[in-house]
Design goal:
The chain is built from 19 helices and 13 strands. It is an alpha+beta fold and 597 residues long. Strands 1, 2, 7, 8 and 9 form a five-stranded antiparallel beta sheet that branches. A four-stranded antiparallel beta sheet has the order 4-5-3-6. The protein has a two-stranded antiparallel sheet with strand order 10-11. It starts with a strand and ends in a 14-residue tail after the last helix. The model has no long low-confidence stretch (mean pLDDT 86).
Length: 597
């Protein structure tokens, strides 16, 4: 549900806005219309401070410390600015890590040359016997060179030969002489590793200040938010006064009004209207609130629109469960959701995962599928076999028919929502065209269902259909726009009929993806079960149980991952495309973002 908003217009002397905004920040209920991006030097500095803190937090948590690392308090310069000091330490750690990787590569490259004395090499060169280092591919190396040159082979690997030549040298593949030997390289590597170990101790010491860093980040966020609100004030009367506009939920009028009256600021209060473009706050129960993240992925509604989250919560859950279609997979999702509660970065998504797991478990049970096994054949479920979905409905696959029925209900609901919205916003007379289509399609489906169920006899059905057809035709072809020429309305009605007939059929068939994805996941899981069973044989060999378990675990893990991806994307598409298109939903609103500490 979209929360009604109250608009507050403030008029005050230039310079007094800071006191007002600080008071509003303490109240934490008023959304001041403001920029969401830096606009001047101070806001850029504060944004840069936030960026630095965020990078610092990521870097500190990313550092992997070996077991046994001991804390080493930092006693260097710059302790008066701990954030930038910590940033410098982490940058030094990154440079040191990269240098160690470079040294490790050098050690590996120098290992084949072994130990040598550069001073002795220099003396030999002064005496007229220079030493040349060569690296040449195995194919190009000629063994006869050992007889014709003062050549010593240092070693070989899979691709190259490493050798040195004393004195005269005309052989290919010469490379610069190493600056130092393997023993010197190892010494440098050990020294750098010791320095890195000390840095790791300092970083471990720094980790205890992460909570303080998070608190400081909140302070910077509040300062930036407050500053952006302040510079959004509109000057007037030769810059002597400024105006601000804010919005707060109507249910909080008493609290906000009391706080404003205490400041003595002059303000005007009125009910927010669509033309004001007020921020959108969604007010839903706990269950529906878990799905608001999906609504925000598409965009919040306009102030005169409707909140699609209640519809998404029911149908996304149902569609997801259809696509997974396995109660065993549902139980796995529930366990994953419970584990996510312990992970800070994912705990907000944990309830949604648990709900999707519960829905999948219920629907999977009705589809009588447990890890791609048909549980309707199990003796334990014989007493409740009647609750399982029948394999055939009217001669067709039961799951396929059910998917189409759910799709038709989903689209009919969308059309009813569109009719209600247009009637509320435009008036009944201006919504007659939409009423015509809703009566024709939704009413026709209801009449057909009642007739098929035997509730209505043939004569009554005939007259109801005739009345529906006539009334719908008047709305579709004659009164679809009361301000337009009636002949033009007929032309527009014919064009809309073509578009609706072709589009609606495609929309209904689009719901077959629910059946197809569920079938694909079930068949793939069944294939893994069959492969594992063939490997196990009669189960008499204990050694075959290991590959059996591995095939089942790996196979179903892959299947759950792929099924979950499809079960997220395609239900989202059915809501964002089919439902939103037929309900007339438009994402035209902005999130409610109150100024608060």
């Amino acid at each position: 549900m979209i929360t009604p908003m109250t608009k507050y217009s403030f008029i005050l002397l230039n310079g007094e806005q800071d006191n007002l905004l600080e008071k509003l920040q303490e109240v934490g209920l008023v959304d001041i219309t403001r920029s969401t991006k830096p606009m001047d030097t101070q806001s850029y500095e504060l944004a840069g401070e936030l960026e630095l803190i965020d990078g610092l937090l990521i870097a500190i948590n990313k550092v992997e410390l070996p077991e046994g690392t001991k804390e080493i308090p930092y006693e260097g310069e710059g302790t008066e600015d701990p954030i930038r000091t910590a940033g410098g330490i982490l940058m030094h750690y990154s440079e040191k890590t990269n240098h160690i990787k470079s040294l490790e590569k050098e050690v590996k490259d120098l290992a084949i040359w072994g130990e040598f004395d550069n001073a002795q090499l220099s003396k030999l060169e002064e005496a007229g016997v220079p030493i040349h280092f060569h690296v040449l591919s195995l194919k190009k190396f000629n063994e006869e060179w050992k007889e014709n040159f003062a050549l010593v082979e240092a070693g070989r690997d899979k691709a190259n030969v490493y050798f040195v030549v004393a004195g005269e040298d005309t052989l290919p593949g010469e490379v610069p002489a190493p600056k130092y030997d393997i023993s010197q390289a190892n010494a440098k590597l050990l020294a750098e590793q010791q320095n890195l170990k000390e840095l790791q101790g300092v970083i471990l010491y720094m980790k205890q200040f992460i909570p303080d860093l998070l608190e400081y980040r909140k302070e910077v966020c509040s300062k930036l938010d407050l500053h952006l609100a302040g510079i959004s004030a509109v000057p007037a009367a030769e810059n002597t006064i400024v105006t601000l506009v804010g919005y707060a939920p109507a249910e909080n009028d008493e609290t906000v009004t009391a706080a404003l009256d205490a400041t003595g600021v002059f303000y005007l209060k009125e009910e927010a209207v669509v033309e004001d473009n007020p921020p959108i706050k969604l007010e839903n129960n706990w269950f529906v609130r878990q799905f608001e993240v999906l609504t925000d992925m598409y965009g919040r509604p306009g102030y005169d629109g409707f909140d699609p989250t209640p519809f998404i919560s029911v149908f996304f859950l149902l569609f997801f469960a259809f696509c997974m279609g396995d109660c065993g997979y549902g139980l796995i999702l529930i366990v994953i959701g419970l584990l996510l509660k312990k992970v800070d970065s994912f705990k907000d998504m944990a309830p949604l995962v648990v709900l999707l797991g519960i829905g999948t478990t219920v629907i999977g049970f009705l589809f009588h599928t447990f890890f791609s096994m048909d549980i309707s054949t199990w003796d334990i479920f014989a007493p409740i076999k009647g609750v399982f979905l029948p394999a055939k409905i009217a001669g067709y696959d039961g799951t396929m028919v059910l998917a189409l029925i759910v799709g038709v209900v989903h689209l009919c609901l969308a059309m009813c929502v569109k009719t209600y919205q247009e009637t509320r916003n435009k008036g009944f007379v201006n919504a007659l065209g939409t009423w015509g289509w809703t009566l024709l399609i939704v009413g026709g489906i209801i009449v057909a269902a009642l007739a098929f169920a035997g509730v209505m006899d043939k004569d009554l059905t005939k007259w109801v259909v005739i009345v529906l057809g006539v009334v719908s035709a008047l709305g579709i072809f004659v009164f679809n726009d009361m301000k337009r020429n009636k002949l033009a309305n007929v032309g527009v009605g014919l064009w809309n009929t073509y578009n609706t007939a072709t589009g609606l059929l495609g929309d209904v068939l689009s719901y077959l993806r629910l059946y197809a994805l569920g079938l694909a996941g079930s068949m793939l899981g069944m294939a893994f079960n069959n492969i594992a069973t063939m490997v196990l044989g009669d189960g008499s060999k204990v050694s075959l149980w290991i590959p059996f378990v591995l095939i089942v675990l790996i196979g179903h893990t892959l299947n759950i991952a792929m099924a979950a991806l499809g079960a997220f994307v395609h239900p989202l598409r059915l809501n964002f495309l089919e439902f939103f298109k037929n309900s007339g939903y438009e994402a035209a609103g902005r999130n409610f973002n109150p100024l608060k500490k």
